[in-house]
Amino acid sequence: MLLETVGLDRAQEDKVVGRFTADRDEAYRELIDKCADFEAEIAKETAAEHFTYAELEENDEDLEKLKSRLAKIRRLDFYHASCWPKRPPATPIAQRCSKTTPARIRRSRGKSLHSPGAHSQESAMTAVPPGLRRAVLIVAPLNIAYFGVEFAVALAIDSVSLFAERADFLEDAAINLLIVVALG
To answer: What average pLDDT does the chain have?
Structure first.
């Protein structure tokens, strides 16, 4: 037995399309409100010269959420929602939000990560906490030492899993040495 289907008449089709369009319009409105909130938050933090690395990371995450939401709405916008004539379309607002964060990062150059508003030669993205290089220089040789210990024990007890585990210590040591090089 086949499934019998009946096509929609014009009035029913208009009703379905109208509902889809209304739902997308509402989703775009919500997105525009969230973009406006995002821009206001960026303006507030910029005025207060709040340029911490954590804030910049949080702003990047919020921006990615807005972009992701816009992409999801577009995928469901089968009938091209009207985007209401009294309000600007969502795409230019999302583009403006995208430009806000990089501009803020550029303005943050010369600000210290540790004290908002303090001027420094280092950019906000390259400031290094004191003692970090020394700590990494201590940890790297310890990783190499543990690599040696696991290698000796793996040979003594003929353990394949310890041979595999020792590679992790060697990798950690290599990464720490690369961090030291990167820190200068």
So the answer is: 76
Contact call for residues 95 and 37 (beta carbons, < 8 A):
no
Structure confidence at residue 179 as a pLDDT band (50, 70, 90): confident
- State which residues form the domain around 76: 10-108
What is the structure's pLDDT at 117?
45
Higher pLDDT, 128 or 26: 26
User: What is the number of domains present in the chain?
Assistant: 2
Domain boundary among 108, 124, 155: 108
Q: For 85-121, how does the pLDDT look when each residue is reduced to its tens digit (9 = 90+)?
A: 444 455 565 566 666 655 555 555 444 444 444 444 4
Based on the domain organization, do 147 and 101 belong to the same domain? no
Question: Could you tell me if 158 and 102 lie in one domain?
Answer: no
* Alpha carbons 15 and 12: distance in angstroms, whole number: 5
Residue type, 146: Y
